[in-house]
Write a structure and sequence with these properties.
The chain is mainly α. The protein is 60% helix and 0% strand. Helix 4 packs across helix 6. It is elongated and about 80 Å long.
């Protein structure tokens, strides 16, 4: 892609249109960032009507979608929402995770930005999203720690005890969990 083709792409394609428009523009921006020298690329970016923040998001979308196998790209584009902001959030997934999500219809084309953030969080960080249950791994309780009900530990003492137990347990590769009351 040369400078004129890139400028034409920036002029003729909108990021507020369909998902196909967003993807086409984004991949073009990513390709231009790889082919054009930095000065020319910045000059084209600055002369376009797209502000820097949006341009940066489109470049991220382009980088992710450029890594999607060509055989899957058409299906991925069809499964993406028409919002560049939502697509940008979904590009927090790896290309393979994105392909899988679209093929399994894990989200619809009318997904909101917040729901997309929640979905990416579940896929990328299942433990933080509360999706991993430690009990699914076969475990055995080894010890129990009890306190006198008439003289319970203060919250500070309880925290100190938990920290000390965690330190010891970590050395032996076992876990300490506070019982829910």
């Amino acid at each position: 892609m040369n400078q004129k083709e890139f400028q034409r792409l920036l002029t003729d394609t909108t990021y507020e249109g369909s998902s196909a428009d967003v993807v086409s523009l984004s991949i073009g921006i990513h390709e231009a960032s790889q082919v054009l020298d930095g000065k020319t690329f910045r000059q084209c970016r600055d002369s376009s009507s797209i502000n820097e923040k949006v341009f940066s998001k489109l470049k991220v979308i382009g980088r992710t979608l450029s890594a999607v196998p060509t055989a899957d790209l058409k299906a991925v584009v069809a499964g993406l929402p028409n919002s560049y902001s939502t697509i940008h959030v979904l590009c927090g997934l790896s290309p393979q995770e994105l392909v899988t999500a679209v093929k399994t219809k894990a989200f619809s084309t009318d997904i909101t930005v917040q729901k997309a953030k929640d979905y990416v969080k579940v896929v990328r960080f299942p433990a933080l999203a509360g999706q991993v249950h430690v009990a699914s791994i076969p475990q055995e309780s080894i010890f129990g720690v009890f306190q006198d009900q008439e003289a319970p530990l203060t919250p500070d003492d309880l925290s100190a005890l938990k920290a000390a137990l965690k330190e010891v347990c970590d050395r032996f590769g076992v876990a300490v969990r506070q019982q829910k009351t």
